[in-house]
Design brief:
There is one protein chain. An eight-stranded mixed beta sheet has the order 2-3-1-5-4-9-10-11. A three-stranded antiparallel beta sheet has the order 6-7-8, covered by helices on one side. Helix 1 packs across helix 3 and helix 8 runs antiparallel to helix 10. About 30% of the residues are buried. By secondary structure, it is an alpha+beta fold. It folds into three domains: about 110 residues, Up-down Bundle (Methane Monooxygenase Hydroxylase, Chain G, domain 1), CATH 1.20.58; about 160 residues, 2-Layer Sandwich (Alpha-Beta Plaits); about 70 residues, Double Stranded RNA Binding Domain (2-Layer Sandwich), CATH 3.30.160.20. It is flat, with a radius of gyration of 25 Å.
Length: about 375
């Protein structure tokens, strides 16, 4: 392909796409190797990875063919010996170039999404931080916002544990979300969420500010994290929240605490204590893995984290201003970042499409710049 047809494609992206294409080819070849296929664990992993790369590789091939056509039409248009052929090529060039542009944008989207789409199950933790009962009510609002958004996309939304407040709010809630594209859309929710509104108990109509934190934790079942059993305190516990007659009577839940960091989780999602124990350990491994990953990639991804947020719960990412019906995301805005406002009534009702689309677009630009 000539420089003309690939001018708008970042060289780093093209290199990554070539590597992805080669990797896909290697996986396909390995699946034809009897010795490799005889190992079920390796075969399943290869099939999964190949399936994730296939859409990107297919779109990349389509892009290369379209770019090649632009090159050929450009050469034909410059031919002096056949005026009619040159005129025809000149006429077809705008549409061919437009097609290359469309394919390139679609390719960028697929390339960036491929890594995120590999996560098909993750946890969202919501915790009330500042504001007492009002903060707990805000956590309940956030919970309902995410629940409605997930229902719209038909993603599974499973409550793993729930701690309620005195006025019906949620002090803490952990949800397991599963579904194609779910992590791609909700991964940006990690951080501090602030609400400004008049509480129901405020007689003088004063606006109060409360805060909650959100953590998004991929469930990485294939990742091994070494945890010394001596560092773990765990035991069975009674279930909590809505359920059958056995709630708070039978110890079907499981509590786990990682003593070096103080991290603790309680799972009451399943009726089986064994299943709750497995889920508690999965959440602990995911949390520790994310912490280690963040530490290792802090320098490399510094520029992206500056715009998208580090995922640290203490970093404020969004303000929900009820009196002004304004939802402000502090990572969005002009060329240098800033903030952008959305209709709060729409967002809190679960209609987060515009907000999420803006975050995905920002993330895409930042990732491409840091390739």
């Amino acid at each position: 392909m000539s420089e003309t047809s690939t001018l708008s494609a970042p060289p780093a992206l093209l290199r990554k796409l070539e590597e992805t294409s080669q990797r896909h080819g290697e996986l396909q070849n390995s699946l034809n190797d009897p010795a490799f296929v005889s190992n079920p664990q390796k075969m399943i992993a290869a099939i999964k990875e190949s399936g994730q790369l296939a859409p990107v590789v297919e779109k990349y091939r389509e892009y290369r063919e379209a770019a090649k056509q632009v090159d050929e039409l450009t050469e034909m248009a410059a031919t002096r010996g056949d005026a009619d052929m040159a005129a025809l090529a000149e006429e077809e060039l705008p549409a061919a170039r437009a097609k290359v542009g469309e394919l390139l944008e679609a390719l960028k989207d697929q390339f960036i999404a491929a890594e995120d789409n590999a996560v098909d199950s993750f946890f969202i933790e919501l915790r009330a931080v500042t504001g007492g009962d009002e903060a707990a009510l805000f956590v309940r609002d956030l919970y309902e916002m995410y629940r409605r958004y997930c229902e719209t996309h038909r993603w599974q939304f499973i409550v793993s544990d729930l701690s309620t407040g005195e006025r019906g709010g949620f002090k803490e809630v952990i949800v397991n979300i599963k579904g194609d594209g779910a992590y791609r859309h909700l991964q940006y929710e990690s951080g501090g969420h602030r609400v400004q509104r008049v509480p129901e108990t405020e007689a003088q109509g004063r606006i109060h500010t409360s805060a909650a934190t959100v953590a998004v934790l991929p469930e990485l079942v294939d990742v091994e994290i070494h945890i010394d059993p001596k560092d773990v305190e765990e035991f069975g516990c009674r279930g909590g929240g809505p359920g059958g007659q056995n709630v708070n009577k039978v110890e079907t839940g499981w509590y786990i605490k990682y003593k070096p960091t103080g991290l603790s989780f309680k799972m009451t999602e399943h009726k089986s204590q064994t299943q709750n124990k497995e889920r508690a350990w999965a959440l602990l491994r995911s949390t520790l893995y994310q912490a280690e990953q963040a530490k290792q990639h802090a320098a490399q991804m510094g520029a992206r984290k500056a715009m998208m947020g580090s995922g640290d719960r203490s970093a404020r990412i969004r303000t929900y201003n009820f009196p002004q019906n304004r939802c402000t995301d502090h990572r969005l805005g002009g060329e240098g970042g800033g903030e952008k406002n959305f209709n709060l009534d729409e967002v809190i009702a679960g209609h987060m499409e515009d907000l999420i689309a803006a975050l995905i677009e920002l993330d895409k630009r930042q990732r491409l710049e840091t390739l």
